[in-house]
Amino acid sequence: xxxxxxxxxxxxxxxxxxxxxxxxxxxxxxxxxxxxxxxxxxxxxxxxxxxxxxxxxxxxxxxxxxxxxxxxxxxxxxxxxxxxxxxxxxxxxxxxxxxxxxxxxxxxxxxxxxxxxxxxxxxxxxxxxxxx
Length: 132
Description:
It is built from two helices and six strands. It has 132 residues and is of the alpha+beta class. The chain has one domain (21-123): CATH 3.30.1330.40. The chain has a six-stranded mixed sheet, covered by helices on one side. Helix 2 links the parallel strand 4 (70-77) and strand 5. Helix 1 packs parallel to helix 2. The chain is globular and about 40 Å long.
């Protein structure tokens, strides 16, 4: 099965060699998302986590999935002191649909005011994917 690629207009233009979403079978993979370009870009990690989860919600819904179908998330954080606030936001937003998760500490992201980047894997209802 050949992967299908889809950019989500609501997430803004893609600048660089990546795609917002890649479908393969009944699985949706996302590129890493940050708060870059949002009102939360220069705010604390908790606010950035909320902005990223908002983007993931838009992405999932535009691709025929939802946050309830989130299978796996990887969080890249620049400061271990941010972890409690990020966990609070994730706990609130996930509800009972808690995915598998990894947290990776990194030395920095592409913009110095970014505290987090998140990528995700979603389950899809069927292998038919919407095309942009």
